[in-house]
Amino acid sequence: MPTGSGIDVLPDEVLHHILGFLEAHESVRTCVLARRWRHLWKSATGLRVVAGNGEFLGSLEKVCNFVDSLLRHCPASPLHTCEIRFTSFGHWILTLCEGGESETRLLRHVNTWFWRVMASVSCQVQVLRLRACCTDLVPGDDDPSLALDKRSVDSRHLTRLELYGIEVNRRFLDFSNCPLLEHLEFRNCLFDYDSRLRICAPSLVSLLLDYIWGLTPKLESMPSLVKAVVTTEDCFDSCTVANCHCEFCDNSYSIGDDTGSNGSVLLKGLSEAKDLALISGPDAYTFKVDLRWCPIFSKLKILLLNEYWCLPDDFRALVCILEHSPVLEKLTLEISCEKHRQQTERKGTLRPMEGSAAILEHLKIIEEDL
């Protein structure tokens, strides 16, 4: 029975939970507080390794040795949350290359840590976050810098996976062996440049695809999906040719008419959602092509769109998705004033949507964010 005062009166299980919110090096340092605290950190429910910009240990060698030792000393830890975040990943790679070493050493270490946590039955990790960015090299440059091994994730406990600055592959995107995975986030991640990858996550409840590099991934069926945010501004499914009339750029004639075979990339997989945000750059054509086979969004109540969907003099994309959202209650149009002004000058004057009254009569709220 714990004795003393203050935090010392708390049982070990509560202290394990509290220590799980600390960064790893801070958690380990608690071992010097008292005899009782000597081994408490080994059973912390969270592992948070945050390194870079001089914040933690400094050198790559010290970081690698610390994390390797940490994982060896916690083989039976009831780990529920794991966060590995590098804010100086690019600097370390550059240092290795300048010293004549290969960056594969660093990549091998990080991959080992990631897959060791995933493979540990005793850890039972439910939340896993992995972030590697290069903003320390060039401010504003957040190119994906860490390529994960070509392996599939197999976990009976994982419920949330968040990736930032990671290069993914075909095998990794198969989450069919993660029956409890409900929340999936890809921020600033690199998909394949040459072939379209598929995301298979049948148990998802929420999905975030933000700042995608490479070809936009195809979404498989997600029957339990409730909320999704998809941004395709930086994807490679784009064309910058002025007044292009290729089958990808100028296909508005076929919007919603089900012509050709069903080649939906995003919209079909998102069709079960209740809350959607669909953001695209002006040159991207993924959504435009998907509208050829626009599904019925039978559960969609909340929808956020940007100016891509309501170009001056052409509201057909907006009309199409509204026609296929029979129970929509709230529509938000997020419009950049400068972009909208330039498009108006280029396209001409605004015209009302055909049949707008019939389409919008079921809406309760319409908002415009400028």
TrEMBL record:
Pfam family, one: F-box
InterPro entries: F-box-like_dom_sf, F-box_AtFBL13-like, F-box_dom, F-box_SCFL_complex_component
CDD domains, sorted: F-box_AtFBL13-like (cd22160)
Native species: Urochloa decumbens
Lineage: superkingdom: Eukaryota
F-box domain mapped to chain residues: 4-50
Listed name of the protein: F-box domain-containing protein
